[in-house]
Structure formats: structure tokens, C-alpha cells
Write a structure and sequence with these properties.
It is a single chain. By secondary structure, this protein is mainly alpha-helical. The protein has helices at residues 2-10, 12-15, 21-48, 54-58, 62-74, 77-88, 93-100, 104-121. It is built from eight helices and no strands. Helix 6 packs antiparallel against helix 7 (93-100) and helix 6 (77-88) crosses helix 8.
């Protein structure tokens, strides 16, 4: 909810002259909530598609964790930061952009590139 208030506050010059600023706040809160749900669902689908290899089954997943760590290290620093902030730490692209000093669209592009690279490196199966 704080995120919705912050977004409305950032646009206050425009919002304060609206007929129903509360409606705008409500819509902003709902859109923020839906975006967060979509991100979580996308992250869950990505994790579910990881194909465990024979070694990871035999050793209880330790090899798979090592493979993920190596795959993350193979990404560029910016890609790694974008994917960790958005997928693992659950920041939205605007929040991550503020931390990285880039535009939200840049964060989304970097995260998409990182996901594609991780899927390729970790041999994600198609569904």
C-alpha cells in the first residue's frame, strides 16, 4: 500500500486536480498489487521449469544450487542486479531502477535478458 501512496505522491500535481483522487489511489494500489502477483507467478513458473539433472537428484540439490550460482555469476553485473532485485527480492522495476540509477524499462530489459540467459545455461525445459 505504501508503494501506491508513493506513486500518487510523485504525481500529486496531476492527481490533486482530479475529480476523484481517491479513485486514482485505489486504481494505483490495485495495479501495483496485480503487478506483484504477476511477478511472483512468473518467478514460480521459472523455478518450476528447471530440469533437475541426475547429479542434483543424487546429491539432494546441492549441485543444482551450485549450477544456479555459477549461472548467476556468468551474467553481467547489471543483469545480475536486475534479476536479483526483481525476482528474488521482489522489488518492482521502478524500485530497482532507483537503486541502480537507470530507467524502469532498462531494469525490465536487463531482467528479461538475464532470464533468457539463465534458462539457456540451466537447460530449462519447454512447457
Amino acid at each position: 500500500m505504501q508503494e501506491a501512496f508513493l506513486r500518487v505522491w510523485e504525481r500529486w500535481d496531476r492527481v490533486r486536480v482530479m475529480v476523484e483522487p481517491i479513485g486514482y489511489l485505489y486504481r494505483t494500489a490495485m495495479n501495483t498489487f496485480r503487478s506483484r502477483l504477476r511477478r511472483r507467478a512468473r518467478a514460480a513458473r521459472s523455478l518450476a521449469r528447471l530440469r533437475p539433472g541426475p547429479a542434483s537428484q543424487e546429491f539432494g540439490g546441492a549441485d543444482q544450487r551450485d549450477a544456479v550460482a555459477r549461472a548467476l555469476k556468468s551474467l553481467s553485473e547489471r543483469q545480475r542486479a536486475a534479476i536479483v532485485l526483481t525476482e528474488l527480492l521482489d522489488f518492482d522495476s521502478a524500485e530497482a531502477a532507483g537503486m541502480l540509477g537507470v530507467r524502469p524499462s532498462t531494469v525490465r530489459n536487463l531482467a528479461a535478458q538475464a532470464r533468457k540467459a539463465l534458462e539457456r545455461i540451466l537447460e530449462v525445459r519447454d512447457e
